[in-house]
Structure formats: C-alpha cells, structure tokens
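User: Need the bound-state model for DI6:
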Amino acid sequence: MNREAADRIIMAGSIFGNKGVDEDGAIASDGLIHDGALVVRGGRIVWVGQRADMAPEFRHLPVSDYGSRLITPSLIDCHTHLIYGGNRAREFEMRLNGASYEDVARAGGGILASVNATRAASASELLESALNRFDQMAGEGVGRIEVKSGYGLDLETELKMLRVARQLGRERPVHVHVTYLGAHAVPPEFAGRAGDYVDFVCTEVLPQIAREGLADAVDGFCETIGFDVALMERVFVTAHELGLPVKLHAEQLSNCGGAALAARFGALSADHLEYLDADGVAAMAESGTVAVLLPGAFYTIRETRVPPVDLLRAAGVPMALATDCNPGSSPMGSILLAMNMGCTLFGLTSLEALDGVTRHGAHALGLDETVGAIAPGARADLCVWNVSDPVELSYQFGFRPLHQRIFGGCDV
Ligand code: DI6
Ligand code: FE
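Assistant: Bound-state model below.
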C-alpha cells in the first residue's frame, strides 16, 4: 500500500473527468478522455488530458499505468445513517407479512427500535459496526460520505453518534460530513409532545453541538410520521442562527411541503422526493437545492411512486444519488447498486447516475466544483475500475469492479 502521496503520472485507457468539453477538445463531449493521463503533485491534480499532450516538464515523474482501465473521481455517498445499534430484520419480516413501513413505525418499531438499540450501544460498539459497513462501501470506491445522527434523540446519545461519525474520518481514508438529525422521530420521553421535543432540540442540543463543532449540517424528517413544516421551520431557524446549513428528508411518503420549506432556507439538499410536485421542483430550482434520490428506500418499502425525475431534469435541479444506508428503510451498503436502481427504477441515464455520486453528490454537501471532478486543482481522490466504459458502473451490480482507490494521491 502506497500511503505516501508521491508525485506521479497516472495513466489509464479512459478518464471520466466530469468537466464536459474543454476548449482544446481534450475532453470528449461524454466527459471521457481516451488514452488519458493525469499528473498528481502534493496530493492534487495539476494536469489532466491525453497522454500525447502532456508537457515535457512532467515526463520525468514515475508512472502508474492502469492499462485499459477507467478512472473516475472517487464516489460520494451524500446521505447515510451509517451509525446505529442493532438491526431491524424482524421488521423486514413484518413487511413481508403485509405491514407497511408506517404501520411498523406506529406500532413502536421503526426508527424508535433503532433508538433503543443505539442508546444501549457503547461508542466503541457503534464505531466498530459503522467501520464494518464503511469498509464495504470503500470497497466500491466511496471516498466521501455523509453520516447522520438521529438514532439517539437524547443529548447524550446524539453527541455519542456525532463523535463516532467524526472518529470514522480519523480511522479510515475518507472525508466524513457529519449531520445532526435530531428531528428524526419524537423520542419516548416526549411521546405526544413533538413541540416540546423541538424546544429541547433548539435550546439544549443544537447550541451544544454548534459550540463543540460536532456537526456540519442539520437535517430533519418532514413527514406525517415525523415533523410537520411548522416544527421543522423552528429547527431550521435555530440552525441558521447557529450558522449551520440545513437539508431535509422531504416528500418521501406524502407531500407535506418539505421541499419548499427546505428551499426557503436555502437548503443544501432535499432528499427522497417521491411525492414532490411541480411547485416543489420550482422552489428547489430557484434556491439551488440539490435533489438527493434514494432508490434503496423506494425499493425496500416497495414504494410505487417515483420521484419526478423529468420535472427535476427540465428545471435544471441537480440530482444526486445516495444509499440512505440505514437499518430500516434502506439496509443497503452499495453505492453502485444505488446507481443501478437510479437508472432502472427512476429513469436516470447512466451518466446522470455517475454525476449523482460524484459532482452532484459534492453539490449536495455544499462543496464546489473541484470536488467530485478530475480537473487541475482538485484533490486526487480517484477510483480505478476494471471496466472501460462509465456505463458499466451502472449496468452491472454485485460484481465489485473497483481495482484501486486513491485518496489524496495515495493508493488506499
Ligand atoms: N427516512 C429514511 O429513509 C430514514 N430516516 C428517514 O427519515 C430511515 C430511518 C429508519 O427507518 O430507521
Ligand atoms: Fe435517510
């Protein structure tokens, strides 16, 4: 394993640069550079193009030649609930016997079942199980991940989850974006008092999280079985007062107007969106809020309504794709399967799927266009794949085509 970010030339059959067409024509209209090379210096890309065009000043550098393989930016999973105690296999069986996701939640299962298990777990147990899940994802090329809290709900357990999320980024070569999801469910100690719980979130939990710098963003579950728009608005007002950007689980099971609320607060993203309507799409387009599509949840709960991909596309709303990895509605650790499902279930093109886990995943995390791209100035966070065409990443599933992940110029 080469953990030293040695300056080098990396060559491959094709490089998916993700930057469209270059003026000098080096990058084809499909974003692919054939017979490509890139130069890494100090962990960053300083040049990318066709090998024949490489300037003589670079030619003395050592070369890693990956033959006919494909190189893409490393993948971004911008919506996960990676950290939790226990599992919810029993609920899977309940659903197989006819119960709906909401039935299970109303019967005291669902998110609250994971809350009990997460409160009971130690930080080291949570870290260990999350690392196991992450290692699977890394084996599919994930180099940047968002991780939410929301299975603690009390102060102590939420802080525990957020600290474990930060620790994850110290244990593995990955960028971790941490999100506080206090407004995920009303915990048992506040049963029937959602407003009081939101007061607690806004006056006790959020200020402490902000003081300790434990979260990069604030999320919520805006739904009939979650929090209504008025309650979510209170959380968002407090988040903004504390300088934290917001995002929202919106229109997953019904149309509650969450996406419009998120847009009003300039949210980074609105996620799920199966029940999003044209007004919600327009609001998101206006505010630049990214649509994060989560086909693993759609598939698991056997939803039949698909997100309005045509409307989002027509309105120019960037669409990201993510696993929503969680123990209930999306027990999935495969970003490549999310890409396949995004195409097959939601009607994305294979290129939209790849954009969804690279540059639009970066947008959904509030990052600029140098992230999730291969361009001068970008960090050398790359994947080398045992395929030659980007379409193959979405087309097949279960084959684990990753040859090598590169993080800041280092093989990992
Ligand atoms: N929507 C989701 O898909 C996750 N949270 C949410 O608000 C699932 C949460 C779970 O079922 O544990
Ligand atoms: Fe989620």
